[in-house]
Amino acid sequence: MSSVAIVRCENYDQKKVDIAVEQACLAANMPSVAGKRVLLKPNVLSDAKEDRCITTNTAVVRAVIHLLKKQGAKEILLGDSPGLQGPSFVPKACGLDRVCKDEGVKWVDFTQNPKTKSVPYTRSKSLPFASILEEVDLLFSLPKLKTHQLMYSTGAVKNLFGLVPGLYKSPCHVLFPTRELFASLMVGILSLVKPSFSIMDGIIGMEGPGPANGKPRHMGLILAAEDALSLDYAQAVVMGYDPLTIPIIAEGLRREEGSVPSSYPVLDANTLVVENFQRIAQQKQTSFFHALIAPFFLSRYIRWRVKRERKAPVFLTEPCIQCRKCIEICPVHALHLEGKSIIIDEKVCVRCYCCHEICPAHAIEVDGHHQE
Ligand code: SF4
Ligand code: SF4
Predict the structure, then answer these.
(1) CB distance 214 to 220 below 8 Å
(2) Which sign does the torsion angle of CA 248, 251, 252, 253 carry?
């Protein structure tokens, strides 16, 4: 069974969010947490103020903590590891540090002694994962409803990528350059660290050039499911996508790592489609051969094809604050600072858009998207 519970919640008033989260979790058959150690994995892509809607809202995280305490969880832990953050990172700007202090919940540092694991569906590629995964009974994925410039939309499945500590993530874009290959990595991670339950903050999501530079979009929803892929399927429906055109969903279904939602016990996603939601323009899907087989034999060809299909980001000098975060995160060292301008070597750039995700100043345009 892969039912997805979708519940209305119009704003982040804590009492309302507590009620909505509880209703959604119970309707989606949340597993018993009594006596268990539970790791909550919110989306802290970059530690920005929560009104930018990049991170899972603190009211939703608090509501999950309240419910888990009510249901007798032995210990609740909270953690994530954004791309540029090293050891001792705590998410202060987005308010999760405050949540930990108020609720007596421990923030976990994923960079401490990560354990290397071979990821399924990736031809035995290995990645380090947060060691805390081996010490908890349950993992809850707490994503934010968001668009994603590269993968079109992300949710409970891609949120698991944060279990790979900090800067180990960006080189994955070089190893998995196409959307389809990157989706196979995400589904491999799902297979390895399947969450016990997922709860999505869809009260105010993000549309346009997400996951960091889009616009907040009021959706008024909390979504919950046992099957992370089903949850993402429902999110895609609400956003107005054909879910089967979202690479992670298509790959997850093909690998049988999740299902199409079998039921909607509260609200039906098909009745909640936001017609004017600003989606990421989708490119024609590539054939199975070109997407998954050719790259292993024709790496030069596939790099050429990626560059032809995706435009390199454009760097705007005026809003740039010269923080150098884009330079630090670029997996192929395609960027440098000249005076007050970031200069890109387009021949080297692999179009992963990590720079766009990390830029705090809206100084990077991708496919003509730029938010003032
Ligand atoms: S310049 Fe940006 S898009 Fe290009 S490879 Fe570097 S981080 Fe990725
Ligand atoms: S483009 Fe963005 S990330 Fe790069 S230096 Fe300028 S402000 Fe920082």
Answers:
(1) no
(2) positive
Distance of CA 82 to the CA centre of its chain: 11
User: Does this model's pTM top 0.85?
Assistant: yes
| Residues with Cβ within 8 Å of residue 344, at least 6 apart in sequence | 312, 313, 315, 334, 335
Cα of 329 from ligand 1 centre, angstroms: 8
Q: Which atom of ligand 2 is nearest to the CA of 358?
A: 3
Q: Looking at domain 4-271, which of 3.40.50.150, 3.50.50.60, 3.40.50.720, 3.40.50.11440 is its CATH number?
A: 3.40.50.11440
Q: Give the closest residue (by CA) to ligand 2 atom 8.
A: 323
Which residues sit with their C-beta closer than 6 Å to ligand 2? 315, 320-326, 342, 358-359, 361, 363-364
Sign, CA dihedral 274-159-43-6, equals: positive
Contact indicator for 56, 143 with CB cutoff of 8 Å: yes
Q: Which ligand is nearest to the CA of 344?
A: 1
pLDDT along the chain (372 residues), means of 10: 94 98 98 98 92 96 98 98 85 96 97 95 93 97 95 95 91 90 97 97 95 94 98 98 97 98 98 95 64 56 71 94 94 95 94 91 76 34
What is the C-alpha to C-alpha distance for residues 56 and 344, in angstroms, rounded to an integer? Answer: 31
